[in-house]
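Weekly modeling sync, notes
Attendees: S.R. (lead), two postdocs, one rotation student

Agenda item 3: backlog of single-chain predictions. S.R. asked that every request posted to the team notebook include the full sequence so nobody has to chase files. The rotation student volunteered to paste the first one in as an example of the format we agreed on. Action items at the bottom.

Example entry:
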Amino acid sequence: MDDISSREYWDEVDSLAREALTEEHSGANLGDWLWESIDSHQWVIYTYMSQCIIRHSQNENYSAENFGPETVSTKDGIKWEAVAFGCLYGDVMDRIHEIRDDFEAELEAADEVAS
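Predicted structure, as returned to the notebook:
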């Protein structure tokens, strides 16, 4: 498997944030949609890719801080997928907060044009 570049990671974060807001605009529950999407994301479920996420994330402690330290480690070691889930989830939530107002205005404008 290839490494994930920083640019690829942040492009994916932005893409997930925009897709989540689009889904929310269409009536989906943002939290549920985001949880399911990230939980099944190929970068999260494969250990090597999980470690790549952690290198690029600004939220490397998200899982431990928000879900408890027991969620990221066992007696056998670190649960890389759980750490990566929190990293990606936290980064996407941060991006949603950054773009929400402007993106929702774009969606509203697109709805008006379509009507």
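Discussion: group reviewed the output briefly. Residues 6-114 form one domain.
Action items: rotation student to repeat for the remaining queue; S.R. to check formatting next week.
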